[in-house]
Design goal:
The chain is an alpha+beta fold. The protein has three domains: 9-123, Acyl-CoA dehydrogenase/oxidase, N-terminal domain (Butyryl-Coa Dehydrogenase, subunit A, domain 1, Orthogonal Bundle), CATH 1.10.540; 125-221, Beta Barrel (Butyryl-CoA Dehydrogenase, subunit A, domain 2), CATH 2.40.110; 229-382, Butyryl-CoA Dehydrogenase, subunit A, domain 3. It has twelve helices and nine strands. It has helices at 3-8, 17-27, 32-38, 43-51, 70-83, 85-104, 107-119, 229-266, 278-306, 312-342, 349-359, 366-382; strands spanning 124-127, 143-147, 150-160, 168-174, 179-185, 191-195, 208-217, 268-269, 272-273. Strands 2-3-7-6 form a four-stranded antiparallel beta sheet, with no helix packed on it. A three-stranded mixed beta sheet has the order 1-4-5. The longest helix has 38 residues, at 229-266. The radius of gyration is 21 Å and the shape is globular. It binds flavin-adenine dinucleotide (FAD). Flavin-adenine dinucleotide binds next to β1, β3 and α12.
Length: 383
């Protein structure tokens, strides 16, 4: 069979770490550098992810999902993050919307959107940030005004991962009494998508600014009752996104380790390979140690999610803080080990370095993570 024919075969289902590992090595790793340079992923990849059942495998089988547990989902997002943080980011935001639907959606909403989201026929994006509101979500100025039996939405969301591709937006806005969460199809009149290009990292995650101008929505657009949305929906969705980013950061550390071990085995300096130098070994040994520690923190957060234990929220903060800071540190060292080659587009470590920086900013920046984790320490002490 020719390579061309093989390339058209649908991908096998991805149901665990081993199948994800093989999928990523075949369909993502060889191309991620080119997608990063192009600032976009191809349509064919989106279809392959759909064939593999990767978009929302945690959805119930009756919706077309696999009823996957969160530990396995985290392992799969780690594998995808090892190959390409941009693709993992697209999975993350689709996961956030799909999870909100399954957790808070009405039966009508679940029936309307669930099967298409599970199949990847409709892609989701998460719209919270604005020009003037990032870490401080309460500062958003987008408004959802009750009108007739529904809502009118006005505002502009910024930095929306997958915004160029998404069919359905999960939008947070100021309602009459508190924040509300709304499902907004891209095709609704008044929705305008403006691509954002040339970001530092996750360059192929197809960011956009999304403007909503007098967008009329029916009553059925609301996810979770008004007043309840800001607490439960937003906290839950951010937790799931943070978990995915933590797992993706573990993938970045693994990729840095793989690249560094390989390069230092072959690059000869002063007559011997770099791997013989104690200072290089120290960097590699720290990568080995941190990737295992970060993986265990993610697994613990996932296990608590599967058990329905509210402790998962703090476990996820800690996993994301540890994994993202370790990813940024080790990506710096991976570039260092590669020398000038590491600064070129011919080796993947420059991409890991830029992507890892983004992990320290999204889904709760480092500073917000430290404030939150320290708060837990003081609460514990007060108990
Ligand atoms: C590649 C990328 C993809 C993104 N995708 C999405 C998306 O899909 N959907 C979405 O809604 N948003 C998205 N974002 C936005 C992201 O969520 C925000 O960038 C993030 O929340 C930080 O907000 P900000 O950029 O406004 O920084 P700010 O909130 O202005 O913070 C600036 C700096 O101040 C620090 N800081 C803030 N508050 C405190 C404090 N109390 N104490 C100490 N330091 C503080 C921050 O940690 C940060 O270092 C994305 C961003 C990027 C870069």
């Amino acid at each position: 069979m020719t390579n061309q024919l093989l390339a058209r075969l649908p991908a096998s289902p991805v149901l665990d770490r081993a199948t994800a590992n093989a999928f990523v090595d075949e369909h993502i790793v060889p191309f991620a550098g080119a997608w990063d340079l192009a600032g976009a992923v191809p349509e064919g990849l989106l279809a392959r992810i759909a064939d593999a059942g990767l978009w929302a495998p945690f959805l119930a089988p009756e919706l077309g999902g696999a009823g996957m547990d969160m530990v396995t989902l985290g392992e799969i997002h780690e594998e995808v993050g090892r190959g390409c943080s941009s693709v993992r980011s697209l999975l993350t935001v689709h996961t956030m919307l799909s999870w909100a639907l399954s957790r808070f959606g009405s039966p009508d909403q679940v029936q309307q959107w669930g099967p298409a989201l599970a199949a990847g026929q409709q892609l989701g994006a998460f719209c919270l940030s604005e020009t003037g509101a990032g870490s401080d979500a309460a500062a958003i100025t987008t408004t959802a005004t009750p009108a007739g039996a529904g809502w009118v939405l006005n505002g502009v969301k910024k930095w929306i991962t997958g915004g160029q591709l998404a069919d359905l937006f999960l939008v947070f806005a100021q309602g009459p009494h508190s924040m509300v969460a709304l499902l907004v199809p891209r095709s609704t009149p008044g929705v305008q998508v403006r691509p954002i290009e040339d970001m530092l990292g996750t360059r192929a995650s197809m960011l956009a600014e999304i403007a909503f101008t007098d967008v009329e929505l029916g009553r059925g657009a609301l996810i979770g009752p008004s007043g309840f949305a800001s607490g439960m929906v937003l906290a839950g969705v951010l937790d799931v996104g943070r978990y995915s980013v933590a797992a993706g950061s573990v993938g970045i550390i693994q990729a840095c380790l793989d690249a560094s071990a390989s390069y230092s085995s072959h690059r000869v300096v002063g007559g011997s390979p770099l791997r013989d130098l104690a200072l290089i070994q120290a960097k590699v040994s720290d990568m080995v140690t941190d990737v295992r520690a970060a993986r265990m923190l993610c697994a613990e957060a996932g296990r608590l999610k599967d058990a329905g234990d509210p402790g998962t929220i703090m476990a996820t903060w800690i996993a994301k803080y540890f994994a993202s800071t370790a990813a940024a540190r080790h990506a710096t060292e991976a570039v260092q080990i590669h020398g000038a080659n590491g600064c070129s587009p011919h080796y993947p470590v420059a991409r890991y370095y830029r992507d890892a920086k983004v992990m320290e900013i999204i889904e709760g920046s480092n500073e917000i993570q430290r404030i939150t984790i320290a708060g837990e320490a003081y609460r514990e002490q007060a108990r």
